[in-house]
Structure prediction request, 231 residues.
Amino acid sequence: MDNNFKKLDVVIPAAGVGKRMRADIPKQYLKLGNKTILERTVDVFLQMESCIADIIIAIGEQDGYFSELNLTANPRVKVCYGGKERLNSVLNGLKTASSEYVLVHDAARPCVQPDDIEKLISEACNEHGGILVSRVADTMKRTDADGRITETVSRDKLFHALTPQLFNRQKLIHAYEKAIAQNLVLTDEASAMEQDGYMPKAVLGAASNIKITEPFDIQLAEFFLKLQNRW
Prediction:
């Protein structure tokens, strides 16, 4: 990073309960070895001191787990309360952050690699921003309401949207507030920016940057972390 580079804050929404994991506690607090999923995710950014400033974690107001983590002792880790939906948690985190550009990353993506984050930062700190993506490798099908295939969709120029996603903080706040006012359904930060007229850049990252959603994903994440010598 050049001497004029200003570090970025990271917002991590962690107020969800992860119902598909069918666990007794929110999935971000499930263990991956001797650490929770959330701790392993945050550790990636804590180690990137040259380009990452504060890590803002949006937790639920009734969260009874975060206070037990060692993360609470780290001065670079800040906490705010999340909201009912993911976008509300992200918006609260954005308003807690202070950097010009900000990264938003899923709490349940502990396998993201620092090289990919640095690549995203180098290519997307601009008006339109950008996100990490991975290529679609499978043949894509579209079905009707009864599950019958109606179309084979070309996978050319199709990508899986990953995180982190990087945008100008004030522009993203504006895009989210506009979307909320219009009752738009958003699935990620890029969709909010797209609705506001921006064209985020797709920055190719590793397909191992999985989101832990189902119970089997725990084993897959363990495999990838071991490959990265992070176990």
